[in-house]
Amino acid sequence: MRGFRNQVLLQMKLFIRQKDELFWNIAFPLFFMVLYGLIYRDMVWDDYGMRAIEYMLPGIIVMAVMVNGIMSSATSFVEERSKGIYRRLFLTPIKRQAIIGAQIIHRYIVILIQTILLLAIGILAFNIRIMGNYFYFWLVLTFGAICFLSIGFALASLIRSVRSATPIILIVFFILLFLGGIFFPNNIMPDFLVVISNGLPSTHMGDALRSIIIDGLGLGSIWIQLAAMGGWTVVSLIVSIRFFRWE
């Protein structure tokens, strides 16, 4: 247990020292929140019965989770694996479960920090009200965090070289971003894209968060979205385990 705690603390210290990680995981989502808040502060989408910024807050939270769970985690894992870091750690008394578990806990803590900051800006600067239960909000956030971290680990397991890591990860990230209803409702897309969008975890997480934040709904209304994210998590974990390698 002590070794696991020390590994988590080590991961957090390394994260704080890496300015690019701090920018993409903390500053980048906050920048989007402030930018879209200033642009769409008073715009009301009458067809959807909400302000534009109210729709976008859950989407920006999903984007922040994806930046951490997919872009940062997969890229870092591939780079560290190519440098032989995990091979050397594997030869130490530290168990592999502690190494992977520390990565997950560290990323989850960062996701919580991201979300708290985004909520603070949304509530204090743009008068967004959280209509639903905060526990349900946390539950959806946790499901989404585990889902996208699992996808990140699956990508890292499949990617064989550092050179191919960035383009592959960016392709996956932007598909989830632009087809996931992050910045605009997916029902304005062409029908064939709506079919694809409805199967993406980013769509399900965003819809679940909006149901809680805007409509104040409970678990009975979002269980399909939770089940969909759970399905993506299971498949991603199976891929991760099947293709995982230390070097």
Describe the 3D structure.
It is a single chain. The chain is an all-alpha fold and 247 residues long. The chain has one domain. 77% of the residues lie in helices and 2% in strands. It has helices spanning 2-17, 19-40, 52-82, 85-90, 96-126, 134-158, 162-178, 191-197, 201-213, 223-243; strands spanning 44-45, 50-51. The chain has a two-stranded antiparallel sheet with strand order 1-2. Helix 2 (19-40) runs parallel beside helix 5, helix 6 (134-158) runs parallel beside helix 10 (223-243) and helix 9 packs antiparallel against helix 10 (223-243). The model has no long low-confidence stretch (mean pLDDT 89).
In short:
The chain is mostly helical and 247 residues long. It is built from 10 helices and 2 strands.
Beta fraction: under 5%
Mean of the pLDDT scores? 89
Task: Enumerate the strands of the largest sheet in spatial order, edge to edge or round the barrel.
Answer: 1-2
Q: What's the story with the biggest beta sheet? A: 2 strands, antiparallel
| Class per helix and strand makeup | mainly alpha
The tally of strands reads 2
Total domains: 1
Low-pLDDT ranges = none
- Roughly how many Å is the radius of gyration? 18 Å
End-to-end span in angstroms?
Answer: 26 Å
The helix content is over 70%
Shape: globular
